[in-house]
Amino acid sequence: MRVSTKRYKVLIADDEYWSRENIKHLIPWELYDIELLDAACDGEEVLERIPEERPDIVMTDVNMPFVDGLELIRQIKEKYPDIITVAISGYDDFEKVKGVFVSGGLDYLLKPVTRQQMTEVLTKALSILEERQNTPMEDRGKSVRMSSFLEDTEMSSLLAGRLYHPNEQVYIPSSMEYDRVHVILVKIHKIQLLTSKYRNDMTEMSYDIKERLRKVLDGVDATVFNFNRKVNEFMVYINSANPPIGNLAGDIAGVFDLDTEGPVTVVVCNEPVTMDNIASCYRNLVSGMMFRPFKMEHFVTGCERVGEVMMKNRLRRSQEKELRRAVAEGKRSAIRKILFDEAGFSHCDDGSWSLLEVTQFLSRVGGIIWSEVEEDNELIQMRDETEEAFRYSQMDIDKQTILDNLNLVIDTVCPKKEISEDATVDDRVQAVRDLIEERYFEHFTLSQIAEKYHVDPSYLSRVFSRKFGESITAMLTRIRIERAKELMRQKNHTLETVSFEVGYDDYNYFSRVFRKNTGESPREYRKRLEKEEK
What we know:
Layout: E1 8-13, H1 17-24, E2 34-36, H2 43-53, E3 57-61, H3 69-79, E4 84-89, H4 94-102, E5 107-110, H5 115-131, H6 137-164, E6 181-188, H7 191-197, H8 202-216, E7 222-226, E8 233-239, H9 248-253, H10 258-261, E9 264-273, H11 278-290, E10 299-302, H12 317-328, H13 332-342, H14 355-371, H15 377-395, H16 399-413, H17 425-438, H18 446-453, H19 457-468, H20 472-488, H21 495-501, H22 507-518, H23 522-533
Parallel strand pairs: 1-2, 1-3, 3-4, 4-5, 9-10
Antiparallel strand pairs: 6-8, 6-9, 7-8
């Protein structure tokens, strides 16, 4: 995430140490391009520091010695009208609440202040800062992006809460004022094309895409957000009180350029749902997305149609038996004939195969092939590498990468005559290692690397593993996890941002990989770090 040259400043005033510490660690302030100034102990100190430190937002406890919160807000309003003020109190006192607003305060928060309350009031404050006419255009854009990021955090917390903690009470943002909503999922399949256009600035990319979607939704009472656990998914909640949404989904798909940004899938849940049912609705939307054609085209569907889609048996039992025999006998040509000609996988992108059928076909073929060979460490590493490549290329709708890696699997389990040692291979293998260390955050497959350095993929894999004691995928994963650990020490990075910056656009997948390699989830690891630092 690009760091802005100027940050908005927030000054906290509270005479209680633990209250100040709670607010200090409540959110990753740096991530929002907000500079949290050293906290003040009373209102008198705030008034002394304002001329020099020039805060944009002051958050003050109501009950403080010398100059209390209400008097502080009144004086700030009189002397520094551009500063936004927020009151914080441990007591729900109507007279004091009224006094805050009479004195010019923006909001009144009750202790203990929660993360959701803080993000909500900051969203409101940043929106006001952005709207002011005397704010330079560059800073106004920065403010809007920060506010947008905060809204994503709130809405993503709601969806993630319903998905992963269904029996717990989940905070619903105040911006969600609808009782029932129509839900639309927008899935971007080639997210790397988009992120490269924005110089890997996830915040700027997310903001721009949401602006595009909002233009299509002009006049529709809707909420748009980027689900931060899956950076390539955008959600649209439409107030069920709106007229029928008609061709809206097709218009949404049309805002993405197929040639430069790749295909998108738009899945609509036309039946309105409540926030209590949003998790099951989301799962239905994802299921609907899996039935899209495996083809480089935009696709619009409704999750209600999932039960109507017929799944074809792409690999018959007789073909499975023939495949097992061909693998056991090491017959590469026979394997290719079964998979590419008889099963028709070489034409999987002609529109007749669904994404789910491609996924299931590769899973079945992989299960058959690997079960028919005696796995050694090199084969296990090769299996992991190709399965990782399949995972990304399936969601990218990338047939060629899938075929390249499927051919690589065939050549690996049915080895050709040993290739003679190339005198330059050591330099090439070292170059591969340098590539991984420098560009670990990018998605590249073994086939792509082998093509870049003009080496047979299976040969490259074997030589690399022998030289460095780990496979290409294992090294890539290790470097990503090590970098993730470094970023987790920086409080200005959310775990979702860490996931994206080290090369995983799906936070849930990153979390599984992290746990597999460390024995802890990312959240457990960060909590342990925080305890050790105290």
